[in-house]
Amino acid sequence: MRGRKLRLTLVAVVILSLFLRLFNLNSLFHFTMDEELVAFRALGLFSYHRPFLIGGISPLQIHLPPYFYYLASLLLWPFKFNPAGWGVSGALLGGITTVVLFGFARRLTNARTALIAAALYATSQAAVFADRHFWPLSLNPLLTLLSLIFLKSKNYWALIATLVLAITADPSNLPLALVMAGVAIWRNYAKWKQIGKPFLTGALVFLTPLILFDLRHQGENVKGIVKLFSRVAGQGLSLNGLADGLLLLPKTLTRFWWTGQTKVVEMLSYCYPNAQFRQQVPLVLLMLSIAILILVWRKLPPVLHYLFIVYAVGLGLFGFLGYPVFDHYLTGWLPLFALITALALDYLPKTLGAGLAIGLIAVNLFLVFQTTNPYGLSYKQELVVWANRELNGQPFSLESESKCHKENGLRYLFEISGNPPATSFMDGNFAWLYQNPPRVETPQLYLLVTDKDFSVFQPIISSRQFGAMKALITAEPVVPAD
User: Fold this and answer.
1) Among 134, 149, 312, 349, which is least packed, fewest CB within 10 Å?
2) Of residues 4 and 386, which shows the higher confidence score?
3) What are the backbone dihedrals phi and psi of residue 24, each rounded to the nearest 5 degrees, phi first?
4) What is the mean pLDDT of residues 193-200?
5) What pLDDT is stored for residue 247 in this prediction?
6) Residue range 350-370: average pLDDT?
7) How many C-beta atoms lie closer than 10 Å to residue 137's C-beta?
8) Which residues contact 130 (CB under 8 A, 6 or more apart)?
9) Order of strands across the sheet with 445-450?
């Protein structure tokens, strides 16, 4: 396939990629605790004039520079802080990643294989819904590909800028940075002046806000490192965690092909039961993914060998030290999984390989269109509109009786609606981000949101169902009956 036909086919794939990430945008958009935190920072930056020196905090209890938060804030601002704006950004990132993947794969293989890889990435349910919310991991697929491209072209300034953004957004990109930097230094050890300046500049840009933050907050990051070692020493080592970490790459490859899930919260939640279930992949698929990784190994460039080994070792060590390992850590590998799958199909007769690719695409399209989100942004926005009308300006307390952060996002949505609650179940996490601190007086009304089915003895003033969430307005705090 060449020329005009190739370009038109690629355009069709990109259009499909954008459509799958934009249709039913509000109802399928995932907006919970992690997204809510970044949204509050954006609102604080532009509406409350609160610039910030630091970003998020890593699982290792070490803070990150603020660059991703500033980027996310800029992307949210034009949409008047409506989180659905991030859905548009996520879809555009997915479309751009599809194009960049095609270009990267074409340099390694041929136009046909590159087009199959792009089509697989565009339609994979796992990739589609990774782009249907916006959080620090949303940039990983694109930044992983750009790092590989800049490394090959020896554009070290662009490489370092990409790696700094990648690590400051998501510390699970640390293996990516180590491999890219290590390969660049190894290839150019005799030309240190060529790579020394961008590397030192990148280190300075990364470390400066952390040092300033520690100077201002009595060595908070140093305390985090001490907590890290104390935690490791206190809970011991885990052989099960080691196995989980080492197998996470092939398991996540199987989920790129088939998730078997049709609820967004099950695919994206950090809640332990959901995260645990995502690692219970069918044994046949796991064995197939390991076989495919072995099969295509020699077709992959050496830098991807190093990347695979460092990720596997890093995840294994992380699990061995007792930390939970999540498939989210491998979001940056999704386009590489598309490439690996396309390379494996290339071993087959042309017609059979094309048929299997079409079959994978068809299965994932079916799953995408079957997927629902009973905790989606649209339900939460409708709940806020209804509650504001029912509450009629009276002070209220926002409460939750659910687990796994399913009702997170509501406190922010009330904030931007102009009717923040007097107190809420998120005050312990987010009170420092509000325009006004929580009130100390007892509120007149209580708004309880839950996805549980239980009896309520207190008189209910008003109630309504929103997806899987039920909202109850009462004059007294609700105590669920056993």
Assistant:
1) 349
2) 386
3) 50, 50
4) 84
5) 95
6) 97
7) 21
8) 137, 138, 141, 268, 331, 334
9) 423-424, 396-400, 445-450, 469-474, 460-466
**For residue 233, pLDDT beyond 70:** no
Q: Which residue has the higher pLDDT, 275 or 169?
A: 169
Residue 235 has a pLDDT of 67
The domain ranges of the chain are: 3-370, 377-474
Instruction: Give this prediction's pTM.
Output: 0.94
Residues facing 57 on adjacent strands: 63
Contact 79, 9 (CB under 8 A): no
Burial class (CB in 10 A: 0-12, 13-18, 19+), 131: buried
- The pair of three-digit structure tokens given for residue 198, joined into one six-digit string: 């961008």
Distance CA 349, CA 352 (A): 5
For residue 221, which of 70, 54, 66, 71 has the smallest C-alpha distance? 54
Q: How far apart are the first and last CA of the chain?
A: 65
Tokens encoding 363? 């299965």
Q: How far is CA 101 from CA 145, 162, 238, 257, 467, in A?
A: 7, 16, 37, 17, 36
Angle formed at CA 309 by CA 303 and CA 314, multiple of 5 degrees: 125
Contact 450, 402 (CB under 8 A): yes
**Per the structure block, which two tokens stand in for 477?**
């705090």
The one-letter amino acid at 128: V
Bigger pLDDT: 1 vs 137: 137
Tokens read off for 16: 């499909």
pLDDT at 190 over 60: no
Strand-pair category, 460-466 with 469-474: antiparallel
